[in-house]
Amino acid sequence: MNNDEKIDLLHRWHMSYKDMIVQYDAFCQLTGAGPEAPLFKPVWGMFERYTNSVAALVDDNNGWLDWYCWECGMGSSPMAAILGEDRLDVDSLDKLLLCIEHDGKEARNGRA
């Protein structure tokens, strides 16, 4: 898979999350339900499996997609990744892909 195909796949993953979170937020606001609501446990489980599948397709072997989604708020709360001697604020899917590609070359996300 080339980089354009990977970016396209990451964009589709990101849009799926955005579409899902809009409905999730509306449901929670309407009903007062929280993140552990029985209705959403299988939905979040399916999203987790989808994320794992996308990660495998884009060669993310170290949890960068999870980190970007949950720690960086899908880019809305950027965090720094260290790529060799460079620091990169990861606020876009293009930068996320740079982290994935750099992995194995001394790349660390915020957990290192």
How helical, in percent, are the residues? 55-70%
| Order of strands, widest sheet | 2-1-3
Give the overall average pLDDT: 90
Integer count of domains:
1
Low-confidence stretches: none
**Main beta sheet:** 3 strands, antiparallel
| Overall number of strands | 3
**Helix count, DSSP H or I runs of 4 or more residues:** 4
* Cα radius of gyration in angstroms: 15 Å
Q: Give the end-to-end Cα distance, rounded to a whole number of Å.
A: 28 Å
The computed structural class is mainly alpha
Which H/E pattern describes the elements? HHHEEHE
Q: What form results from the Cα inertia axes? A: globular
Proportion of beta-strand residues: 5-15%
What are the main properties of this structure?
112 residues, mainly alpha, 4 helices, 3 strands, 58% helix, 11% strand
What does this structure look like?
The chain has four helices and three strands. By secondary structure, it is mainly α. It has helices at 3-31, 40-57, 64-71, 93-102, and strands spanning 79-83, 86-90, 107-108. A three-stranded antiparallel sheet has the order 2-1-3, with helices on one face. It has one domain. Strand 1 and strand 2 form a beta hairpin. It is globular. The two termini are 28 Å apart. Helix 1 runs antiparallel to helix 2.
Give the helix/strand layout:
Elements lengths: L2 H29 L8 H18 L6 H8 L7 E5 L2 E5 L2 H10 L4 E2 L4
Antiparallel strand pairs: 1-2, 1-3
